[in-house]
Amino acid sequence: MYRLDRIVLREVALPLKEPFVSGVSRVDVRRLLVVEAWCGGVCGYGESSPLSDPYYTEETTETAWHVLESFLIPAVLGRPWRSPADVAARLAPVRRHFMAKAGLEGAVWDLYARLQGLPLSRALGGTRDRIPSGIAVGITGDLAALGERVKQALDAGYARVKIKIKPGWDVEPVRYLRERFGDFPLMADANSTYTLQDAHRLKELDAYGLIMIEQPLAWDDLVEHARLQQLLETPICLDESIPSLAAARAALDLGSCRVINVKPGRVGGLLEAMAIHDLCRERGVPAWCGGMLESGIGRAHLVALASLPGFTLPGDISPSGRYWERDIVEPPFTLLPGGEIAVPSGPGIGVAVDREALERCTVRARAFAP
Ligand code: MG
User: Fold this and answer.
1) Ligand 1 centroid, distance to 189 Cα (angstroms)
2) Active-site positions?
3) Cys staple from 314: which of 54, 160, 161, 332, with CB 3.0 to 4.6 Å?
4) CA 214 / ligand 1 centre spacing (Å)
5) Domains and CATH numbers, the chain
């Protein structure tokens, strides 16, 4: 039996190397919550990754802080547990607030793996020691600037490029990239900025051999996505519309998508993410791991998750240097030849948290004891 004898909640502010713009938000300084879960002098780290504004999901940095501080941390502090599933069960009565839960559950997973002397990847059932790295390129609003970013990504060797699209920035950038760079693994993410009335516009994208179109329609829709999928040759991948295993099952039953983007933050933690992975694997549906502009701590969790065998497509997991001048973990994640990232083999998340760097970027912190 283990007990959490101390939990520290921190908000960190990390300036991005360059602003990241999607169809629904813009991020200049990334505010994240880092959770430290302590048991007998051993610390596990997790990260809660909502955006500052409620335009990707309903959560924000502030709501996650509130829910962790007032409900989630008190539900687990000092209580006995054997496995992360016991802790997740104590968090389950809180409805939704998935990113808040994922930060705490993630810290417990890292702690658990360290206590077992296992790499997190192996504790989760991962089988790979390297994962393919994809890159997401934000909306530039300028074709030449987009071309430059994509050229850099292809030169760096990324296994897949994703561009963000929205109405008015869709067919032209995709055509431009195909004309300039030819056939390379390319996909587009719409972040719910279209409606079914735009089906003809999205249908035009069929001509460009995209690997998939991510989340074209409403963030809470499955039925219209199923209608759209019948009209499109390009596979639809769902992101925002899949907050849970139940939603994933419904989406596959309805034919709403042919690919699933699994983000532990969006679905409430690694356990739910693994359950969705298992469902996709059973049904032969390709899946991949998405990201939320994580620091090295959240990235380490994603890398461990992406080492599971059912994640058959390159995800959004890029090296530290894509985002930060200096990451808060040592060593930072780097891109290997062949567009891959090594899965750390040390205990837990397998990278050391740089405590000095963590302190420096912390803008508020609170320690909890039973
Ligand atoms: Mg997405």
Assistant:
1) 6
2) 164, 263
3) 160
4) 6
5) 2-117+352-368 (3.30.390.10), 123-342 (3.20.20.120)
- Other C-beta atoms lying within 10 Å of the C-beta of residue 280: 21
Give phi and psi for 197, each to the nearest 5. -65, -20
End-to-end CA distance of the chain: 16
- Widest pairwise Cα distance in the chain: 61
Structural contact between residues 213 and 191, judged by C-beta atoms closer than 8 angstroms: no
Residue 337: other Cβ atoms inside 10 A: 6
Ligand 1 mean position, distance from CA 191 (Å) = 6
Provide the 3-class DSSP secondary structure of residue 351. coil
Distance 225 CA to ligand 1 centre (A): 15
Chain segment 309-363, per-residue pLDDT in tens:
999 999 999 899 889 988 999 999 999 988 999 999 999 999 999 999 999 999 9
Calculate Rg over the CA atoms of the chain: 20
Using alpha carbons, select from 104, 31, 56, 25 the residue that is nearest to residue 270. Answer: 104
The whole-angstrom separation of Cα 29 and Cα 118 is 33
pLDDT tens for residues 183-229?
999 999 999 999 999 999 999 999 999 999 999 999 999 999 999 99
Gap from CA of 165 to ligand 1 centroid (Å): 10
Contact 18, 369 (CB under 8 A): no
> What is the tens place of the pLDDT at every residue in 57-83?
999 999 999 999 999 999 999 999 999
Show the tokens assigned to 344. Answer: 């750390």
Respond yes or no on whether the N-terminal peptide bond of residue 331 is cis (omega within 30° of 0).
yes
Length of the chain as a residue count: 370
